[in-house]
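Lesson 9: reading folded outputs for more than one chain in a single document. The general rule is that every protein is listed as its sequence immediately followed by its structure tokens, and records are never interleaved. Here is the first one.
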Amino acid sequence: MNAAETACKLASVLLQYPHPALFEGTDRLEETARATPRASRAEFAAFLAWLRAEPPGEVVRHYVETFDLRHRCALYLSYHRHGDTRGRGMAMLAYKAAYRRAGLLPSEDELPDFLPLVLEFAALHPEGMALLRRRRTDLDLLRRSLDAAGTPYTRVVEAVCALLPGLRRAELRAVRTLWESGPPAEEVGLEPFAPPEYLSGLAGGQERR
């Protein structure tokens, strides 16, 4: 696993629900952070310092408050562009196609645009990193939302953004427009697509609630 893949793997772990194993493995997480690209290292270090300093119950409370109770901080990347609209359903198909190109079959465990899942994919296969690059605008919308919320989790998303090319001028305009308007609100049903059971290592033992 190269440095960028290590960074994606670490970010995937840190953005999942903070189960007790996360706090028990802080030393290992800090060691892993030192093996990530220099552009990401300081962001990971700052987040892990917060994680070490905070009581576990407070970290859990903060995670739920940030990601479960704030729609604009949702970890589902396509939500930031499409909201709950039919356009998001089409985006799901694009994620599903990316997993399939990598030889991964869909399951029903999680939506395919769930950022920790996409990051795990990026740590395992070049198609996953290509998917992150294609969704760079959505990732920046999430970063802005986390920054506005004042959460240390911004640092983890910043670390991921540091692995990717900067936004082009047209992308920056799109981000500004979408940021000002917020996600569309049309309610539709979404079929839950996700990759198969390929998560392993640090993330493999962390089960979603």
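And here is the second record, again sequence then tokens.
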Amino acid sequence: MTTALIMAGGKGTRLDLDYEKPMVKVNEKPMISYVIEALIKSQYINRILVAISPNTPITSEYVKKYPVKIIKTKGEGYIEDLANILKNREYVKKDEVIMTIVADLPFITANQIDDVLENYYKRGKPAMCVSVPEYLFEKYDITPTLVYEGLVPTGVNLLLANNEEQDQSIYESKNVELAFNINTLNDLNLSEDYIRK
């Protein structure tokens, strides 16, 4: 069984909206709801942590309705907040396997999470980055935030709870739903189009 850590403390400045990014609604429902509900249904996730920050007080209140543990971070940035959590033994055991996942993947499913975890445990490396091929972004007119050797990171990763450098594999998923990482208003509009189709 694996612990999931949802990173939900970002401002979402690229969306240029007046409310918190995890609470942005897709199909009339906050994005973070989809992520939490998929994790709850996963057969391999047994604990869900939600990292919030001073930027996301409404998110912090909202997620209390779910069986999650809330972690308050300083909101110093994704990397900094994650590093502080991974070394804090109040939240995670040393070298415990952690799935980190962003709060803005509204189309993620329990089956996709299980597929990722099954691939991780087969590989035997301490860390794994889940990516989607760039051509899927082109097909659906989604703008990737980062492209590396034809792959785009999805915001889903696995690693051990320590701040040491870890040997990493890259898992290439063909699930277009993992490409819908909502960072801009265009991404949001495209996600609504995807639902309609």
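What the second record shows: The chain has a mean pLDDT of 90.
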